[in-house]
Design a protein that fits this description.
Strand content: 35-45%
Number of strands: 14
Domain BPL/LPL catalytic: 28-212
Number of helices: 6
CATH architecture of the largest domain: 2-Layer Sandwich
Signal peptide: 1-20
Keywords: Ligase, Signal
Distance between the termini: 34 Å
Low-confidence stretches: 1-21
Organism: Candidatus Nucleicultrix amoebiphila FS5
Shape: globular
CATH class of the largest domain: Alpha Beta
CATH topology of the largest domain: BirA Bifunctional Protein, domain 2
Order of helices and strands: EEEHEEHEEEEHHHHEEEEE
Radius of gyration: 18 Å
GO cellular component, one term: cytoplasm
Number of domains: 2
């Protein structure tokens, strides 16, 4: 999928005397959509905080909540997300009209593809570990966690939470409970979290305004998938299943071929079997 270059990009910094030292607000305008960013030095969770401001989201105005660190970041199954300072912790609140969205399952796909595009911008070759993790060199570098709320009779608000490891040292990555990496580990001169978040914001806007048509999303998503055609294990939150990761269907659901049958998973966690 090719997109036109963004023609209009401007930051508007809003300085007020009442602004606290651990909070700042600015805005980015992209093709007529104003994206208000509320940044905190430390909060419990960007996903929790953004929902307190859901009424600020409309057709012409999205919301982004980011933080230097968070103490209650969540991953799949409610697991805690390691959230030390120096990485990207962000949740986007996005206005999605009913008629612009073909499938609810497109939301996490759009979020994952936008995040992969940002990693590519910084010279990486990411893979997507179905359903919500981003890998570089078979090590986790980030994750995407999405939710939806219906507002009235004509639109949803999509919440797209993204964590990306930017400035984590190899020692810090080694303490995570699975193989992990960061841009600092991968690059001699890694970008700042601000540089990463700026490009991520552009990518999110691009995919959620020009990439909402389902047809080509699945084929693009397939090209990024890790472990396709390989022996894997799927954890669905309760049970574990083993087999060959055959493909995803047109809804983005994973097809697992076991010894006795083909199983379809709407969500889950995949890991390779060696």
């Amino acid at each position: 999928m090719k997109f036109l270059h963004l023609l209009f990009l401007s930051f508007i910094f809003l300085n007020t005397a009442a602004m606290a030292t651990d909070y700042r607000e600015d805005a980015l305008t992209l093709d007529g959509t104003k994206i208000i960013r509320r940044h905190y030095s430390h909060i419990p969770s960007t996903q929790t905080t953004i929902k307190q401001h859901r009424l600020d989201i409309d057709e012409k105005q999205w919301l982004l909540v980011s933080a230097d660190s968070q103490e209650g970041g969540k991953g799949m199954w409610g697991r805690s997300w390691v959230s030390p300072k120096g990485n990207v912790f962000a949740t986007f609140g996005i206005y999605v009209p009913f008629d612009a969205l073909e499938k609810l399952s497109d939301i996490p796909i759009l979020g994952a593809l936008a995040t992969a595009r940002t990693l590519e911008h910084f010279g990486q070759k990411p893979k997507l570990r179905w359903i919500n993790n981003l890998l570089v060199n078979d090590k986790k570098i980030g994750g995407v966690l999405c939710g939806m709320e219906q507002h009235g009779s004509h639109h949803f608000v999509a919440y797209v939470g993204i964590g990306l490891n930017v400035d984590m040292s190899e020692e810090a990555c080694s303490k995570i409970d699975q193989p992990a990496t960061s841009l600092r580990c991968l690059m001699p001169f890694p970008p700042s979290t601000e540089e990463v978040l700026t490009h991520l914001t552009e990518s999110i806007h691009l995919y959620f305004t020009k990439g909402l048509h389902h047809g080509s999303l699945i084929s693009i998503y397939r090209n990024y998938l890790a472990y396709k055609g390989e022996q894997v294990e799927i954890f669905d939150g309760k049970n574990r299943f083993q087999g060959v990761f055959v493909d995803i269907n047109e809804d983005g659901h994973l097809i697992l071929k076991t010894l006795t049958e083909d199983l379809v998973f709407v969500t889950g966690e995949i890991s390779p079997r060696f």
